[in-house]
């Protein structure tokens, strides 16, 4: 140890382990314990040296507030207990708060519909990631859920739109459909159908009536064109 280390330990002992006659009656408690360490002990015993809350602005504020003093929203303070005790108390309260919603939500969730989007090989190792960029949108005006996604295998120029009514007992027309971009941006009917083919990089709902998509040219060449398009959902 260096002289600096020894000085540090000596100062620590001098500050925290002065004799404390008022503690002589407690078995084995003849000195003030280190004030930080006592909060970290995993035991339910009272602190040997509880903090002095006199002049604390927060406690004074609570004491003078008629509404907050007995508020159930404020976690109770245990000035005589360690942090481990308070942690266990808080965990118990949180578990109690979350248990009922978990039971209710768990019992209310059920499968509304099932549809096959694509088939893959039996081997999980060789299964590619075919489902891409799912984006969810809730139209609160018409109470309809939307999901935008693409399937990469053989329809890179298509974006799929799945929609379901929030009331699972009701159905909507065209529950799932695909929009194909292909060569719709060709400026002339004379252009080759293969010369300007576009695929979807990303898609999000802009609002309840508009979908925003980012497209790129599918042709393998430098300087691929990128297009930001807004499409009316209708």
TrEMBL record:
Record key words, sorted: Cell cycle, Cell division, Mitosis, Ubl conjugation pathway
Any single Pfam family the record assigns to this protein: WD40_APC4_C-half
Read off the InterPro entries from this record.
Answer: APC4, APC4_C
> Has UniProt tagged this entry with the keyword Cell cycle?
yes
Q: Can you give the residue ranges of the Anaphase-promoting complex subunit 4 C-terminal half WD40 domain?
A: 136-234
GO cellular component terms, A-Z: anaphase-promoting complex; nuclear periphery
Q: Name one GO biological process term.
A: protein K11-linked ubiquitination
* Keyword match Manganese: no
Which residues fall in a coiled-coil region?
A: none
Q: What is this protein called?
A: APC4 protein
Q: What is the lineage of its organism?
A: Eukaryota, Metazoa, Chordata, Craniata, Vertebrata
What gene is this protein a product of? Anapc4
């Amino acid at each position: 140890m260096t002289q600096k280390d020894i000085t540090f330990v000596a100062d620590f002992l001098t500050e925290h382990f002065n004799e404390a006659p008022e503690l002589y009656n407690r078995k084995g408690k003849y000195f003030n314990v280190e004030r930080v360490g006592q909060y970290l002990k995993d035991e339910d015993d009272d602190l040997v040296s509880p903090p002095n809350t006199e002049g604390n602005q927060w406690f004074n504020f609570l004491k003078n507030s008629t509404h907050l003093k007995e508020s159930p929203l404020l976690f109770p303070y245990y000035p005589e207990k360690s942090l481990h005790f308070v942690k266990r108390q808080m965990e118990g309260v949180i578990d109690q708060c979350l248990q009922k919603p978990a039971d209710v939500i768990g019992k209310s969730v059920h499968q509304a519909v099932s549809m096959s989007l694509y088939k893959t090989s039996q081997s999980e190792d060789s299964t590619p990631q075919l489902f891409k960029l799912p984006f969810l949108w809730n139209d609160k005006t018409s109470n309809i859920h939307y999901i935008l996604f693409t399937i990469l295998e053989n329809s890179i120029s298509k974006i799929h739109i799945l929609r379901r009514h929030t009331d699972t007992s009701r159905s909507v027309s065209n529950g799932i459909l695909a929009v194909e971009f292909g060569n719709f941006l060709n400026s002339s009917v004379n252009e080759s159908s293969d010369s300007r083919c576009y695929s979807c990089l990303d898609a999000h709902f802009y609002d309840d009536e508009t979908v925003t998509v980012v497209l790129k040219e599918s042709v393998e060449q430098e300087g691929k064109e990128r297009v930001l398009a807004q499409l009316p959902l209708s």
